[in-house]
# Entry
Amino acid sequence: MKNIIVLVSGGGTNLQALIDAEKSGIIKNGKITCVISSNPGAYALERAKNNGIETAVIRRKDYDKFSAYDKALTELIKSKNADLVVLAGFMTILGHEVISAFENRIINIHPALIPSFCGEGFYGLRVHEAALEKGVKLSGATAHFVNEICDGGPIIIQKAVEVRDGDTPEILQKRIMEQAEWKILPEAVSLFCQDKIKVINNKAVISE
Ligand code: GRF
# Structure
């Protein structure tokens, strides 16, 4: 059974999807053992506590240097014996130390079809604003491994979602969460926990 550590900063609907997927057996061979938040007020922490999951908080602003924060986060995750780290709306950039310590063991969910609307500055509603501005007819979500290139790691699963006339960024965000993020993130986690993902030439290859 793999230990899954989930990193959050906000409402935690993706965390909830993971908790529900673990309970219903969609996530095979994995257990969420700790939720770490960058924000002590995150509702995601309540979701963890309501489900008997250990929590921890680490704030970037409590460290002068980024390198000290990076080291502390790495140590914290290691102390929880993480096999897999999931970024579920974690709003702090990860540093070299944590990324290299968990190479191809950190999964992020991005609310667009990478390589569209991704990279620095594309987070939260900004992603959906950019998609609507461009007038794309399809957007969606991507579950991918994290490397040192922002939103540039190997893609594990993508799911397209239609963009409709009259969509606002908020409406599109909600549709993408419901139809894509909350499904493919648990699926990607389950594949990882069953050792079904291999990374070859920077591409994720799924075996069934
Ligand atoms: C989601 O849109 C996710 O794609 C992005 O951050 C948001 C987190 O929402 N990375 P929640 O905290 O899971 O509700």
In short: The CA atoms of residues 109 and 143 lie 5 Å apart. The chain has a mean pLDDT of 97. The domain at 1-102 is CATH 3.40.50.170 (Rossmann fold). The chain has two domains: 1-102, 109-208.
